[in-house]
Amino acid sequence: MSTSTAATPHLSSVLPKHILTTGDHHPIVLAEAKRRAASVQLRIADAVTAFAGSMRFVYLHAIVFAGWMLFFEPSPWPTLTLVVSLEAIFLSTFVMIGQNRQAGFQQAKADHDFKMSDQELLTNTELTRRVHELTKEIHAHIVGIAAVAPALATGPVSPTTPGSDTVTASPVGSPAS
């Protein structure tokens, strides 16, 4: 149930490179990537979140904080504390944006997967019913042939004596008595 980006070339202008280069993706992944790429605010939030979650962010902050503490402000660094507190507030907001986005994405994917699973269940149920019907038809056909075959092999059935309830089978090809 994957959709290839090769089949939809117009998506190459809005989807992130990692989505385009890894081949087929779940339709929900493509829809979410397209939606996020279309919004400037979401692209900025994604860029900040990606940078804040990288080791470059850690190294940059270590260098900036060390430089600030050594060269710009004497101890106990009240301005640095204010800057770090404000940064924490904004970064926690970006983390919450990312969590909300992930929760929405997971819900959309779960809904899609449920619908697909439900469709497959209905299809399998219908196929099972049809196989059952065909099996009954084949069984009825084979049982019908099996019931007729012994009578054909032994020939026509005729009574032994007129008015008698006893029935005997005559060999095939011989006249009945």
Give the helices and strands, then pairings.
Elements lengths: L16 H5 L5 H12 L1 H13 L2 H18 L5 H77 L2 E3 L7 E3 L8
Antiparallel strand pairs: 1-2
Helix pairs in contact: 3-5
Explain this structure to me?
By secondary structure, the chain is mainly α. The chain has a domain at 39-154. Helix content is 71%, strand content 3%. It contains 5 helices and 2 strands. Strands 1-2 form a two-stranded antiparallel sheet.
| Spatial gap, N to C terminus | 72 Å
CA-based shape: rod-shaped
> Low-confidence parts lasting 5 or more residues at pLDDT below 50?
1-11
Helix content: over 70%
Number of strands: 2
Q: Number of helical segments? A: 5
Q: H/E element string?
A: HHHHHEE
